[in-house]
Write a structure and sequence with these properties.
Blueprint lengths: L1 E9 L3 H8 L5 H4 L3 E6 L10 E8 L2 E13 L3 E8 L4 E11 L2 E10 L9 H24 L2
Antiparallel strand pairs: 1-7, 2-3, 3-4, 4-5, 5-6, 6-7
């Protein structure tokens, strides 16, 4: 089992942080491992939306199709893999600390299967590092605007 929770404070209002982070089209800008995004269902983002993410992780190209299972604007987004190398759930939460700052959390939970389960401890360390870097990147992007 892989279960990673990362958080950061971003000095922007919750509405700005959540709108940017919840838009899959922005993912390649702030996720270092995401190289492309393709909507599989029509916009806008809502429960049931399906989005394909093309990633590079540990030197491999991976394609995941996620389905949005929960979306509460400016509060929470939960997506689960519909297809991909192993089942994964990604949860974002946004909490306004005050009018100009937001606590953003990023949680990835999954259960590697088959051959990949032997690499789960290593994957967890690499994913934790990537998540920290991705959150720092989104903070830099949003705070510079």
């Amino acid at each position: 089992m892989v279960d990673i929770l990362t958080e950061i404070i971003i000095n922007k209002p919750v509405e700005i942080v959540a709108a940017y982070a919840a838009n899959p089209d922005n993912a390649p800008e702030w996720y270092v491992n995401i190289k492309g995004v393709e909507w599989k269902t029509p916009k806008p983002l809502t429960s049931g939306t399906m989005v394909e993410f093309i990633t590079h992780f540990l030197g491999r190209k991976l394609i995941y199709t996620y389905v949005v299972t929960e979306f509460a604007e400016n509060e929470k987004l939960v997506m689960r893999t519909a297809t991909g190398p192993f089942p994964m759930e990604t949860t974002y939460t946004w909490t306004g600390i005050d009018q100009n700052s937001t606590r953003m959390t990023l949680r990835n939970r999954g259960n590697p299967t088959g051959f990949s389960k032997f690499f789960a401890p290593f994957m967890e360390i690499m994913m934790q590092k990537a998540n920290r870097n991705d959150l720092k990147r989104i903070r830099t992007i949003l705070e510079s605007r």
